[in-house]
Amino acid sequence: MCRRRGVSVFLLIVAIVVSPALSLSSHSPTCKAWIVQSIPTDMPHLPPVPGVLSTEEVLRWLAGNSTSKLQIIAQYWQLLAQPNDPRSGDYGFSLSDLRRFGASSGLSVYKAIEAAADRNVNVKIVQHSGVYPDYEQESAHLASGRPNVENVTLLLGDWWGSGIVHAKVWISDNKDVYIGSANNDWKSLTQVKEVGIYLVDCPNVASKVDTYVNNLLKLASLNSSLYTRTVWDSEWQSRRKVPCWSHFVALKERCRSPLPTYIETPNVMGYPVISDPFMFKIRIDTPGHNKSTSKESLSYLSFSPPELSFGKFQTDEQAWIDTIKSVNFGGTVRMNTMDWLSQSQYVDQTIYWSSLSSAISEVVFSKQATVKILVAYWGHFIENTDQYLKSLLYSNILCSSSKYNKCGGKVEIKYYKVPGFNSTGPAIREGNRTGNIYPGYTRVNHGKYAVSDVRAHIGTNNLVWDYFYTTAGVSFGTYNEAIVSQLQEIFDADWDSPYAVSVEPLQGA
């Protein structure tokens, strides 16, 4: 197992200004980490967790402190509000409404990126085609007339038949990194519940994520029709499109990967769990937590889809499963997601996906663990989520179903309802007032993370099959005690708030 460390430390001088990086010593390389959160306005019963930074501040710092290079992976761009565009979910809201919503936060982040570009910082953007109505217009404007700004659109559907660039990652000067759930959208800063991690002066972590960025860029430069195959996927029992170097392609028919950093593993069909996934020991100081310690902690990165992994990095699916199974005997696993679906959502042939559900039931039985799951309930809630969640609650019945079972674990599930979730959308539609009190696609718990009593996992993927097998995602995980503790605090604050409502079992169960 390869073990590497960061090289220098970034000192926080005041609450909102970060100083240039300074080296501690060659004997105690340390990076710093903060949990990052967005809390929607008008949630008075959810006090912020002490020591947690705001998403807006962190993104501004990353752009504002960049001196040579800024890399951004984004699904789409809507940092600038569009109240005058009838196609926008912002349409019809007044300037005073937008001030109350905090739309200026998006403008401040956009201006910070623009200022970095004007300082001749090399800005590299990898994105999906964006969303309605203006798609990638903001990033195109950043690149216009600036040779130091590279703006690349990658359509993963050309490679996997469906899927998008869904990762939300920023890297500054090859050492400072944000990984989390926040989109490049003003609403993600003030109207959507987000969770991420901010790693400062961690060049070895940044270099690994940079490799993934380069793999995405290489993919965008290739003609997908020359490098894809439609195969029978025996693991997921479906016929689907994949890159020709995929391990779902029979070995004799598999091509050599064109990605700049990729290690081939022969004689494998599909992507089995790695028994010894790549982890690295790093010293992480956590100034935002009173249990801060600089002792070395095992940490890791995970990626999706599997065909974009490299070296011995685990797939993101495995990282979620291993986090669930890391729970101590009688301990608690906390899981937070926007979407939960034990199947696929976007591919033509529906795929049943029980990976996470099975891991949850296993620790309930074998480790007598409590598993708490918090799922968003919002204006775009997936209809059959409820049935899948309630079937998972049946584990509690099975746990005590036999005299042979020595099972003391349980599953608890709550829906997270951000106030106003059912009153979102444009204020005016076809000339008429809609009665909506918040912009479209807001008022939702959007974080994607899991934390056991020993391990924290913070990512960008919703808990649906497509996100792990056709969608670009990145996660950071660690056994650092302070990060684990603070992530538990964030979850518990949400779980214990009046905004979380218990999911009841199926009738008759």
Outline, from the CA principal axes?
A: globular
Write down the domain tally.
Answer: 1
Helix/strand/pairing category: alpha/beta
Compute the average pLDDT.
91
Tally of helical runs: 12
Helical amount among residues, as a percent range? Answer: 10-25%
Percent of residues in beta strands:
15-25%
Number of strands: 28
Structure keywords:
509 residues; alpha/beta; Endonuclease, Chain A; 24% strand
Architecture overview:
The chain has 509 residues and is of the alpha/beta class. The protein has a single domain (12-502), classed as Endonuclease Chain A (Endonuclease, Chain A). The protein is 24% helix and 24% strand. It has helices spanning 55-64, 95-101, 104-118, 137-143, 157-160, 187-190, 203-221, 316-325, 355-366, 385-399, 465-469, 481-495; strands at residues 12-14, 17-18, 31-38, 53-54, 69-74, 77-78, 122-127, 149-153, 169-172, 176-180, 184-185, 194-200, 228-233, 238-243, 280-285, 296-304, 314-315, 332-337, 340-341, 370-376, 410-416, 428-429, 432-433, 449-451, 456-458, 463-464, 473-478, 500-502. The strands form 6 sheets. It has an 18-stranded mixed β-sheet that branches. The model is unreliable at 1-28 (pLDDT under 50). Residues 161-188, 441-467 form the PLD phosphodiesterase domain. This is PLD phosphodiesterase domain-containing protein. Pfam families: PLDc_2. Keywords: Signal.
